[in-house]
Amino acid sequence: QMCIRDSCKFCLMSKTALIKELSKMDSAQLVQIIADAYTAKAEIKDYFEFFLNPDVEKLLDKHKQRITKELSRTKWGHSKARVTVIKKAVKDFLGFAPGVQAELDMYFLTLATLATTERYVHFTGPQERYVAALTAQIMKYGDDNHVFSDVAERFGRFFDSGTASSRFTRIVKEAMANT
Q1: Which band of pLDDT confidence, cut at 50, 70 and 90, is reported for residue 149?
Q2: How far is residue 16's CA from residue 151's CA, in Å, rounded to a whole number?
Q3: Sign of the CA dihedral with 17 first, then 20, 21, and 23 last
Q4: How far is CA 102 from each of CA 18, 24, 107, 126, rounded to the nearest angstrom?
Q5: Cα gap 60→83, rounded to integer Å
Q6: pLDDT tens readout for residues 78-88
Q7: How many Å apart are CA 145 and CA 147, to the nearest integer?
Q8: For residue 56, how far is the Cα from the chain centroid?
Q9: Is 112 buried (19+), middle (13-18) or exposed (0-12) by CB count in 10 A?
Q10: How many CB atoms within 10 Å of residue 177?
């Protein structure tokens, strides 16, 4: 794995060792390390931009666009979307720790985007299994974060909206029943 510097002792270092090494540096050296990382990696730039100016709506929109772009990959009425790309977009958003409500927004936005897409294209087996897994993940998240009533209300609004096809609704409801 390449580092941001030519000969960097921080590569493949544990978090504890990294903290130990960084604590030995003065503020000018730390500023330089952070500036180098900021210019070298898009993920680090995104993190600092959110950390310094937390705009949850902008972050949510950016990740929604990633998911929508991936779900637009179709051929002859069949979805060619890669579940791994969608999972990564969700995971990347959650990595910013924007708060419970924003994370629920991301989960349900992903579910609604999947439902909208599935109305027009045929989903593969892995994509359908991801819908079930995402549903189970949402249910667990609601339970773990003591917001299960909010999750139940959001699922109710999701079903009432008519966004999902009967097939998609069946997959979600079966996953809910099995969770």
Answers
A1: very high
A2: 37
A3: positive
A4: 31, 37, 9, 26
A5: 19
A6: 999 999 999 99
A7: 6
A8: 13
A9: middle
A10: 8
